Amino acid sequence: MKEIINISGYSVDLSRYNDSWEDVRTFVQNMGCSGVELLMGGEHDDTIPRFLISSVHLPGWLGWVRLWREPETVPVGCDPLKKSYYFGAATPGDLVRTFCDNLTKAARLGAAYAVFHITHIELDEFFTRNHRYTRWEVLSSAASFLNTACKSFHGGEPPVPIGFENLWWPGLTFLSQEEVDYFVDRLEFDNWIFVLDTGHLMNALDVNNEVEGIQKVLSALNRLSDKTLERIQSVHLQCSISGQYQKEHFFCRPPQGFTDLDYGDQISLLMPMISELDQHLPFKNPECIQILEKIRPDYVVHEFTSRSREELEKKIMTQRKALKKI
């Protein structure tokens, strides 16, 4: 089981390491880890040395399913920022090409797998949870999109395994074996794995403290088949105990005037709330190791948000101590 850390190719991340990938390697080694999972899309993606790469996280487009299912609903004059970062592209064809280009890049970097979110959410649904699509519609649309994209590669298989990650919005949640089977049965290629994000699963399970979260995650995993558990080859290990916050801030109307804001202002309003909801905290309770013992993944990603190198170091060391690694 390899332990790795998350990092992006954006300047804001690399500047913590004196703009030096060699400095990143020293940090990774000092943390007792073996590599990084690179969030792609940054200015320095192409400069990262292959020896640092364990895996990559593909860009996450929250609105891509609508572009794929209902491209006619995407305004022709859509904000370019929203077109790129929310829908992922201007047309379904462009979306496929962008996705395939990212997979090719991931393979060129030598990634063991490339993470992709199977989810969709409209921005006002952050608040209302009254979703445009059901989880079944998101799962079937995702399979359709992925099948189309992978057909462009030799043998109909992607050049790097795609790691399907769970979220708590409609799509892949790992809340039932039924949803997993529904998705997998529609895939026409086999070069894929599952990536379990423990914090995302906690967000779907109304968790208010760490011990409760660990037990609820284990219960959810017990409802999955051995075949599914074997496909979970990577775990984003993080703790999120935002159940009370969700009750207080969601399942309600958006703030007055929200729908009239431009995309950038909507995201600026939402980002602090997402940070409160999806907390990316380190586990402190040693019982968290039961999750890894249940799955026995090839990779464990210490996936945390942080405002400094020192804060990230503290979080990694806290979690590794809980895992009895130090």
Q: Structural class, please? A: alpha/beta
Shape by Cα distribution:
globular
> Which architecture name of the largest domain does CATH use?
Alpha-Beta Barrel
Number of spatially distinct domains:
2
Which oligomerization state do the chains in this entry correspond to?
A: single chain
Query: What's the average pLDDT?
Result: 96
Approximate strand percentage: 5-15%
Radius of gyration: 19 Å
User: For the record, what CATH class of the largest domain applies?
Assistant: Alpha Beta
Helix content: 40-55%
CATH topology description of the largest domain: TIM Barrel
Widest β-sheet, arrangement of strands: 1-2-3-4-5-6-7-8
Spatial gap, N to C terminus:
15 Å
Q: Which spans have pLDDT < 50 for at least 5 consecutive residues?
A: none
InterPro entries: Xyl_isomerase-like_sf, Xyl_isomerase-like_TIM-brl
Protein name: Xylose isomerase-like TIM barrel domain-containing protein
Pfam family, one: AP_endonuc_2
Question: Can you lay out the helices and strands and say which pair or pack?
Answer:
Layout: E1 2-8, H1 11-14, H2 21-30, E2 35-39, E3 53-57, H3 64-69, H4 80-87, H5 92-108, E4 114-117, H6 125-128, H7 135-150, E5 162-165, H8 177-184, E6 192-197, H9 198-204, H10 210-222, H11 226-231, E7 232-237, H12 243-249, H13 263-277, H14 289-295, E8 299-302, H15 309-322
Parallel strand pairs: 1-2, 1-8, 2-3, 3-4, 4-5, 5-6, 6-7, 7-8
